[in-house]
Structures are given as structure tokens and as C-alpha cells.
Specification:
Length: about 300
Amino acid sequence: MQLSTAMQEFDLSRVGRSPATRAWYTRMLGPLIDFLDDAHISEITASDLRRWHVDLEGRDVRWGEQRPMENGGLSPYTINAHLRACRIFFRWLLEEGYIDSNPTRRLDVPALPDAPPKAISNSDVEKMLEMAQADGARSYAIVCFLADTACRIGGLVGLMIHDLDLEHRRAVVHEKGNHSRTVYFCEVTADTLRTWLKVRPDRGDHVFVGQRGPLTGSGVYQILKRLAKMAGVKRFNPHAFRHGWARGALERGADLGTVAHVLGHSDIHVTHKFYARWSDEELAQRHDRYSWMNDSSESDA
């Protein structure tokens, strides 16, 4: 079986998962077909995959978000994603009996840089909200919902009118493989949603619609990009609001369990790994805030 045919079978095995997940695997594994010239899967060796790894690290152009290509090599995160998808794919081939041994078993996946998540700052959220309010009811509702609920972009674009409970300020969103969960929001966000629903065109049951029907993730990105340009904000992608909510909640003293539940994490260790990470300066400030010695010195005074 050729590599391209095997990838088609792999994609079929993921029917029922979210379109975004299936598209991610196609995007991550596509370059492997080109590099190996659509080789037969039984002939692919660990050495071939290592050469592909070297090729990924040596590229001087990359695929940019919302644009075909841009100068600069692939980031460590993108390379890591390619290799992780490769390992999952070949493990599936072995489990399905298409290959006798897994060449990725000896393929090292470099660790990611120990960098903090890319969160939008509180001041930039305020700037985005100001621009969105001036832009119109839909833009304001989108930014409020992202900033207040910490939902993923799939949850926002898939939000249906019947999933909204404005009286109790909550909504059911469908994210990551169509998993459903409840998100919560403040009265300000509820009011922005009420305002938008009053003027929303009747184009189906989705909350956020455009001229041709439901808004897509790309459509939301373009709205945020336009608002960010007007506001002078550099970090504006939908996931940055999710990161920002988590970081802000932890900075204000929220416990990891609460933040994990709000984000929809099934494992608190995921929340800790990606969000409870502080710079030396932040750790020093948090130490002074929570140290019992500060309480002791105040009581002595």
C-alpha cells in the first residue's frame, strides 16, 4: 500500500471526529508523502523518517496562519506536531496490521521549549473590547464570549441558539471531537449576546452568522485580526483569549482545579503544565504575596 492510500484509510478511521482534527492530521502528514515520494509503507524505515526530520528543521519557509507561505523556518512547535502526527499514524498502521514493525519506535521527538503560553494581556483585551463595541453587536459579542468563557474557537463557531441559557448565564459548547461541555459567562456578556440576537440575520440556528451562513474559524480570525489592527494589539488569535483567561485567573489566586474545570481539561496536570508557569519575577511576587513570613512580620508590627 502506498503512503497516500494509507493516509486516506487513516483519515477514514477518524470519521466522527471533528473536521479540524482530521484536517490537522492531513496538514501534518502531507509533507511526508512529498518527501518520501509516496513510498510503499512497508519500505519506510526509521532512517527515512530521521531524514524527513532533518528536512523539516532545514526549511527556510513555513506555512503561515491564514496565508500560504512566509519566510523563516518551521518553529519547534510545528516540527514537534509533524513528528507526533507521524508517530500516531504509524502506530495506527501497526495496530491495523498494515505493517509488521513501527519505524517511529526509534524516532525521537524533540522536547518543546519551556516557554510560557501565548496569552493576550488584560490591557489588550480591554483594547479589543473597545474596538469591538465600536465595530458592532456581532464583533462585541464574539470578543466578550471568547474573553469571558475561555472556550475554544470550535465552541464559539458551533454555538447554537438553543445551547444558550442567557437567564442563568451559561451555554453548551461542542469542542474537540464534538465533546460537549458547559461554559459560563458574566451579565455583561449575556447583555452583548441579547443585543446581537435582536439584530442577528435569520440564517440558520447558529448564534454567530455572516452573509453566507454560520461563521467559520477563519471568519472569526479575520474579524479579530481587523479589530487588533485598529487597537494596535499584536496577540489576538482566538486561543490567546483562552490562555489569557487561565493565566489571569491563576494570577488572581484561582486554584488549579477550578481553572481546569472552566477550561474543560479532564486532567489537572494539563492545566498545570501549560498555564501554571511563572517567570522568576512573577514567582518572586507570588512568593511575597503568599509567604507566611510576611504575615508574621505584619503581626509583629
